[in-house]
Amino acid sequence: MKEISGTDQNKNEISMKDQMKKFLIKSLYGFLTVLMFGLGRRVGILDYLQEKAKSEYNTDKVSSVTFTIEEVSEKLNLERNYVDAWTHTALECGLLEIDDSCERCLRTAPYVYDLLINRNQPAYVGDPLGAFYYLASYQDLILDAFKKDGNVPNFEFTDEVIHDINRMSARFGTLIERIFSTNFKNFCEKLHNQGTILAAGCGYGYNLQVWAKKYDKARFVGIDIDPTAISHAKNMVEQNKWKDRIEIFQSQINEYAKKTEKKFDLILLNQVLHEMDHDINYRLSVFNSLCSLLKNDGILLVGESMIPETFAPSQKLLLFDVLHKFLEARFANFYNEKTFREFIDSTPFTRTEFIKEGGNSIWVIRK
Ligand SMILES: C[S@@+](CC[C@H](N)C(=O)[O-])C[C@H]1O[C@@H](n2cnc3c(N)ncnc32)[C@H](O)[C@@H]1O
Known about the structure:
By secondary structure, the protein is α/β, with parallel strands linked by helices. The chain folds into two domains: 16-124, Winged helix-like DNA-binding domain superfamily/Winged helix DNA-binding domain (Arc Repressor Mutant, subunit A, Orthogonal Bundle), CATH 1.10.10.10; 171-366, Vaccinia Virus protein VP39 (Rossmann fold, 3-Layer(aba) Sandwich), CATH 3.40.50. 49% of the residues lie in helices and 16% in strands. It is built from 15 helices and ten strands. The strands form two sheets. A seven-stranded mixed sheet has the order 6-5-4-7-8-10-9, with helices on both faces. A three-stranded antiparallel sheet has the order 1-3-2. The protein starts with 15 loop residues before the first helix and ends with a strand. The structure holds S-adenosylmethionine (SAM).
């Protein structure tokens, strides 16, 4: 058999240098970009730049913000050399560029203000990036979990991380609302006209806020077991002056079902399943409760990552879904389309539709 030597290789084949540029160098820049973004956000530089843009331009349509190292260091009481190191690295990563209009000035690179600083922009991707940033500090837990008979990680996230994860899952909530409203126009019209919506596992209320703005005549109840999330959600209701149409309770789904007589047109269960106790009997009891809380013609809308089997052909960008695998690997029962349908078939619900659009999907479940 002929050995394949370097000279026999296809001329179009990629060289080691190309490959280095393709993933090694690119990934290093990507990794540092996430780190600089995360650090900049945690020490307050990004919020400072957003405030500065708001006060200088009085509009959300800002193309870039100019600043100096000394200014950031003074205003935020940060060590100058560290601000310099952060700035230099962010400059090298393409987050910033030199602004020649003043001496030793920098400005945010094109679109960086919209993508990474302005939280009010629909294009803002800071929350998923923030979640990736925090994941780095959970490596030790994941490392232990790899070891046979090692400690099973409990992923006790800090409040800062939980807050970020909530903001990220709320973004998925916006995407599922879009799919739902385009596919169920009549149902959504009914919701617009004084429907009732339960946000089960409402978290910090970010997703609830999106739905409450869109369905502005609907009445809502938000419940969650996390007291910090509940107090944040209550604040959100107060700030928006929604007390007459949104109630927030600290309650587990089964408990709430036991103590209320209310029935809802729509129940949202967005990004809750992967955080819910994995005991199958417990989950069945929760779905029994959800069924009892729904009107006969109501809809349970589930938004959750469906994680295909490793060797299934990848039809879309799976980065976020695949990362969920780490959170759930200890239970070894994350859902894919087939297993989630099987699970729903074992509950009192009788009709299940799976709708996939682009990289996102929803489950529409009925009695
Ligand atoms: C990732 S957050 C999603 C929050 C919200 N649904 C959203 O889309 O923004 C998941 C939330 O589910 C809550 N949760 C998990 N199990 C629950 C249960 N059995 N009853 C009520 N809340 C629950 C958690 O406390 C957490 O706040």
